[in-house]
Write a structure and sequence with these properties.
- The complex is a heterodimer of chains A (about 500) and B (about 475).
- With about 500 residues, chain A is mainly alpha-helical.
- Chain A has a domain at about 275-495.
- Chain A is built from 19 helices and two strands.
- The termini of chain A are far apart.
- Chain B contains 18 helices and two strands.
- In chain B, a hairpin with a 2-residue loop joins strand 1 (about 60-70) and strand 2 (about 70-75).
- The two termini of chain B are about 25 Å apart.
- The chains are: A mainly alpha (about 500), B mainly alpha (about 475).
- The interface of A and B includes residues 397, 441, 445 and 475 of A.
């Protein structure tokens, strides 16, 4: 029994939320549909932890779907790289589900809640499928599943604010364009190599170094994925989608959605096309590097001038994605590891920040703008405290998880003799203190309305747990750091 | 028998425990208020023991948390750290007593929060003193910045908000943008975050880059308040006076110059600096800051602002001593950390006492108050003499060593700088007792100074005299620091 379980873990991680999503829709009761969703995300999280342990032993699991052997059949691959986004997505979605219990009925009418949970699980299944599959076309399928489910989730925000429909429409169109570009790229590669399996692709590409179709296919794929990963300037769908989505959905999307695509980006750059070195090096140096640097500053500066807090955090996500892609662009083992470290840390940071902000919004019952936050720090000390910790973590201050990512990122850049990039990263992170501190200051210094608020444990429990992680991984980062270094080594080998 | 490792823990943890306990006993004001002084006594007991072990040249290393491969939070005792740790923890006793008097006398709000953050700031300063590697140093440097923010903005009004912004943007900005990459640079160049008594950089870094790296450190350590990144210190004076006294005359700024000295001696190494001349520019910058801020201080009518500029000028003595890169000058710089601390905390205590007792903040309002508050002005007089450097006050020792060091290094101009600055010091500090004792009273204000304020002030002023006669152990430590014993 146990043996069957362990053997099938790679598919179970995806199937568990996928199947439950079909049942959740049948349960009209709010509470029971929530319980089922929580259970499902919890089991998925459990599976991914089991998978993590399995990976420590085997280091590479290949799973042939339906016993159709690769490269003909669809192959699921779990290795030390893929396990990082799997843990992030399943873990954060579990905490986001716990948080959703109180928040969801506030913003969505009762009869559609079970449908929302169904979409919720579908989106999670799509994201997990994205990172487990080893088949380029299957990846496209999951990309669409997760995108369409997320679009529908964002559109649910329309019950509170009609703007959500525009946001969802934007997300839909831009997302569809991205997916189309990706699938065109896959089509071109299939045309010249005759395979869809990623490992097989890698081997067959090595003979076709200067093939124009290869370069075109690569370009389409990369741009398609960059749209999904919200790499500047292809990020325009993101701020609106995060801002107008229902609060719990913002938490889920902000912490997980772009992480999966970033992982795919790394996989395409360093694994699928590892044999086309010139192509990759040029892309990294002339495309990804400058775009990442612009993203770091553009995202931060837009966040500084933004009044709406959810949008502010979304802009900040654009900047943070810039750090991750910048780490990839430098392309050494240490820097790619730093990218993965930050991918993990950013998920727990942004998850915490969005939970904190939406809990504040839950109590003031208004759009969460900077002025509406006045004095809330005094009436909601627990939420405020967690918010400050997560903010410090985002700004990369010592004893928080964010510091570890920044430290490794800086070390990687300085080791590759790019001290000016290190300084740019730090200037942008010092600027991020400006918008974070602006919020903290308003909550701490200004007199707010005289209201008495009783903080609800059902809401702040997940916030406290995520905040605790932010501190814990600042003190004991060896798990994340070692995992990321192993992942980077797996991706680019010992060559560099 | 308590081991030295445990003494380190006792010293750094007692303020942390005070911080954690304070919110829970806020119902009993007496217990809460005197937790600070008790913590101070325990902490400085530990610091005394650490210092005596440092005098016996014991090498102590203590790793607390291993964050990941190659990075950890750890502590060790260096001679300079032993001095700074003792200064911070010992003066905390008096500052804690004083703040009880001040907060009560002023009927300030949110006292519990104040005491809690006050203690955690001391904790951070002590962790800096005993930091075992560059990363630990940086971590607690930042903790110190953030823990003092609620203290600086204690009044929670618009002025506090503005000052808080300036405070945070300069201190956080400089440390994140320059100090952190400088530390990582050293890490990459030497392969570890360790420091050593003779410096770690010799032969590990291109000599041409050494001045650049030094500049990143110097401007990254905003707490040392070198021009042009000194503006945060006058801004921070908006805080209640106990904060200005302990933190912005002792713990925070001394943490800055302590970091500066540690970087100069234990990362670069004074031999390396002397050999390469990497710190030559710093001599001129520090001299400039020293003189310019002394001149600015003369024109400040606000008592705390004048003291703030005086502090900046005195901090430059320490940076200058390190930059001269001779063993005498470095010793003088290290001694100045302790002698200036005792003197300046007294002056700030007096400023706070005058505010509580008579709501006086301006120097021009002091005329003729000497008779009604003679003891407090006497304390100010003694503290001033120490800062000016008149024997038998402690300040004379450090100035003496600094002058010798300047002569050693061959920069005779620097001796001139010291002399001019001494005259300026005398000019702007002596004005205060002079006005109090010799000028005619303009307004009839009764000055009533609570005992809890008066007593610590008198004790610290007495310390400046005591230190003159008991400088020997400290001087032994500083000579160990420069490797003479």
């Amino acid at each position: 029994m146990i043996d069957i379980l362990t053997k099938n873990l790679p598919i179970l991680v995806v199937l568990c939320p996928l199947i439950t999503s079909l049942f959740v829709v049948l349960i009209p009761n709010i509470f029971f549909s929530w319980i089922l969703t929580t259970l499902s995300t919890f089991i998925t999280f459990l599976f991914s932890i089991l998978l993590y342990q399995e990976i420590q032993i085997q280091s590479h699991i290949s799973y042939a779907l339906g016993k159709w052997m690769p490269p003909i059949g669809i192959e699921y691959i779990i290795d030390k790289v893929a396990i990082i986004p799997i843990i992030i997505i399943s873990g954060i979605s579990f905490f986001a589900t716990i948080f959703a219990y109180k928040i969801m009925p506030e913003e969505i009418e009762k009869k559609s809640i079970s449908k929302v949970y169904s979409l919720w699980l579908l989106a999670i299944a799509g994201l997990l499928g994205l990172v487990t599959t080893g088949d380029a076309f299957n990846l496209f399928v999951f990309l669409e599943i997760s995108s369409l489910a997320s679009v529908a989730l964002v559109a649910m925000g329309a019950q509170k604010d009609k703007q959500a429909l525009v946001a969802a429409y934007n997300y839909l169109i831009i997302g569809a364009v991205g997916a189309t570009l990706y699938v065109i790229g896959v089509g071109l590669l299939y045309g010249i190599t005759g395979t869809l399996n990623m490992e097989d692709l890698t081997n067959r590409i090595s003979d076709l170094n200067n093939n124009k179709a290869l370069i075109a296919g690569f370009g389409f794929m990369i741009i398609g994925i960059m749209v999904k990963a919200a790499v500047f300037p292809l990020h325009i769908w993101l701020p609106r989608a995060y801002a107008y989505a229902p609060s719990a959905v913002s938490v889920l999307l902000a912490a997980t959605a772009t992480k999966a695509s970033l992982y795919i980006l790394a996989r395409i750059l360093f694994s699928v096309f590892e044999n086309s070195e010139d192509l990759i090096n040029n892309t990294l140096l002339y495309v990804i590097l400058p775009l990442s640097i612009i993203a770091m500053f553009a995202g931060t500066i837009m966040a500084i001038y933004e009044k709406d807090i959810k949008r502010l955090l979304a802009h900040s996500s654009v900047a943070q994605i810039g750090y991750i892609t910048l780490a990839f662009a430098i392309g050494t083992k240490a820097s790619i590891a730093a990218g993965f470290i930050h991918m993990f840390n950013h998920a727990i940071i942004k998850g915490g920040l969005f939970i904190a902000i939406t809990s504040l919004g839950f109590f003031i019952q208004k759009r969460i703008t900077i002025n509406n936050l006045s004095g809330l720090g005094r009436v909601m000390p627990i939420t405020f405290f967690c918010f400050v910790i997560c903010s410090l973590s985002l700004a990369g201050l010592p004893l928080t998880a964010g510091f570890i990512s920044k430290l490794y990122l800086i070390k990687a850049t300085i080791s590759s003799d790019a001290i000016w990039i290190a300084i740019l990263i730090l200037i942008s992170s010092a600027l991020s203190v400006v918008y974070l501190w602006k919020m903290v200051e308003v909550m701490w210094m200004r007199e707010g309305r005289k209201i008495v608020i009783k903080e609800n444990p059902a809401i702040y429990i997940s916030l406290i747990i995520i905040t605790f992680f932010n501190i814990y991984f600042g003190f004991d980062a060896s798990l994340v750091v070692n995992g990321s270094f192993e992942a980077a080594e797996k991706l680019i080998g010992d060559l560099k | 028998m308590i081991t030295i490792e445990n003494f380190i823990l006792i010293t750094i943890l007692s303020p942390l425990i005070v911080c954690v306990l304070t919110p829970f006993i806020s119902n009993s004001t007496i217990l809460r208020d005197f937790l600070g002084p008790i913590g101070g006594v325990i902490s400085s007991w530990g610091a005394f023991n650490i210092m005596s072990s440092a005098l016996n040249n014991q090498n102590i290393n203590l790793e607390i948390v291993k964050i990941a491969e190659g990075i950890s939070i750890g502590f060790e005792v260096t001679p300079l750290g032993a001095i700074f740790g003792l200064v911070a923890s010992f003066l905390w006793i008096f500052a804690a007593i004083y703040s009880v008097g001040y907060m009560r006398g002023n009927k300030e709000k949110n006292q519990t929060r104040f005491y809690a953050f006050y203690a955690i700031a001391v904790h951070a300063a002590l962790c800096i003193a005993y930091a075992g590697d560059l990363l630990t140093l940086f971590i607690f440097y930042e903790v110190l910045t953030f823990s003092t923010y609620p203290l600086v903005t204690h009044k929670q009004n618009e002025m506090a908000q503005k000052a808080g912004r300036l405070y945070m943007s300069i201190l956080v900005g400089s440390s994140v943008i320059l100090l952190l990459p400088a530390i990582v640079w050293v890490w990459v160049a030497t392969g570890s975050l360790e420091m050593s008594q003779n410096g770690v950089l010799d032969g590990k870094i291109d000599v041409a880059y050494a001045p650049l790296l030094l500049a990143m450190f110097v401007f990254g350590i905003g707490k040392a308040a070198l021009m042009p990144i000194h503006k945060w210190l006058p801004a921070a004076m908006v805080a209640p006076t106990p904060v200005s006294a302990l933190l912005h005359a002792v713990a925070v700024v001394k943490a800055g110059v302590f970091t500066m000295l540690i970087i100069l001696t234990n990362v670069f190494g004074i031999d390396f600096l002397a050999k390469t001349g990497a710190s030559e520019w710093l001599i001129w910058l520090a001299s400039l800051t020293l003189l310019a801020t002394s001149i600015i201080a003369i024109f400040k009518d606000d008592l705390k602002a004048r003291l703030a500029y005086s502090t900046i000028s005195q901090l430059s003595y320490i940076t200058l001593g390190g930059a001269l890169a001779t063993s005498m000058a470095t010793q003088g710089a290290a001694l100045h950390i302790i002698t200036h601390a005792a003197g300046k905390i007294t002056l700030f205590f007096v400023a706070g006492a005058l505010y509580v007792g008579a709501k006086i903040t301006k120097i021009s309002d002091l005329n003729g108050h000497g008779k009604s508050a003679s003891l407090i002005f006497l304390a100010f007089f003694i503290g001033s003499l120490s800062i000016i450097g008149v024997p038998p006050m402690a300040g004379s020792w450090s100035k003496f060593f600094l002058m010798l060091g300047a002569a050693d290094s061959g920069y005779l101009v620097v001796i001139g700088v010291f002399c001019v600055s001494t005259i300026l010091n005398a000019f702007y500090l002596m004005e205060i007792p002079a006005r109090a004792f010799f000028f005619k009273k303009e307004r009839e204000v009764s000055v009533k100074i609570p005992k809890l304020i008066l007593i610590p002030t008198l004790i610290t002023s007495f310390l400046t005299i005591l230190l003159f006669f008991c400088i020997e152990p400290f001087q032994n430590l500083t000579s160990m620091m420069v490797g003479k014993i």
